[in-house]
Amino acid sequence: MSTDRLSMTLQALADPTRRAILARLATGEATVNELAEPFDMSLPAVSRHLKVLERAGLVEQGRTAQFRPRKFRPEPLRDLAGWLENYRRFWDESFDRLDAYLKELQKGEKHGSDPKDR
Amino acid sequence: MSTDRLSMTLQALADPTRRAILARLATGEATVNELAEPFDMSLPAVSRHLKVLERAGLVEQGRTAQFRPRKFRPEPLRDLAGWLENYRRFWDESFDRLDAYLKELQKGEKHGSDPKDR
Lengths: 118, 118
Description:
- 2 copies of one chain form a homodimer.
- The first copy, chain A, has a two-stranded antiparallel ribbon with strand order 1-2.
- By secondary structure, the first copy, chain A, is mainly alpha-helical.
- Helices cover 59% and strands 5% of the residues of chain A.
- Chain A has helices at residues 5-13, 16-25, 32-39, 43-55, 75-85, 93-111, and strands at residues 59-61, 70-72.
- The relative contact order of chain A is 0.12.
- In chain A, helix 1 (5-13) packs antiparallel against helix 4.
- Chain A has 2 domains: 3-73, Arc Repressor Mutant, subunit A (Orthogonal Bundle), CATH 1.10.10; 76-117, no CATH class.
- Chain A binds chain B through residues 2, 4, 6-8, 10-11, 13-16, 19, 23, 26, 72, 74-75, 77-78, 80-81, 83-84, 86-88, 90-92, and chain B through 2, 4, 6-8, 10-11, 13-16, 19, 23, 26, 72, 74-75, 77-78, 80-81, 83-84, 86-88, 90-92.
């Protein structure tokens, strides 16, 4: 199996339960016990999924002794979004136009009314 | 293994060679032979990767008899980008502001100078 960073992220996300755990953690920290309950999973099963998410850098363990709440880390998703941007032109017809438009706006701002940019 | 659509997409992308094949096909159709050459891979190896990409809907087989060029299909990437949007606020500080700004622009256009919108 491949171990480059992006492949690990994609591999970790390629499971609906792990995506559900991530969605839960995105609303706030949770312990393994708190995660196991709504998903109706055994603690070892939750722990296994968390380990995959942790290796991918999507989840980190808190340092509070005993309970060690898990915390969502968005960085790997940001990198994945960056990779996807290479392909956006294939489905987003308005992307090129928006991109051109935003560049125009930036140009306007530089020559225009924002005193911070002078 | 999970077989929901998004999981299949992520699974297919979780390999650097498959992502490289996809990047090549995004520049234009190619036959299995044409794909095998630059990647220095055997035809069966390329075929195996292509099968995973095809099952995920990221590649389709052309109907030209004999050569059957493979073609890139962007739809699964668009859906993945849609899923990622749920998390964009975690890394894109300017996202909320840009979103608000674009809504303002749209409002301006509606009340403004584009006759198509009236």
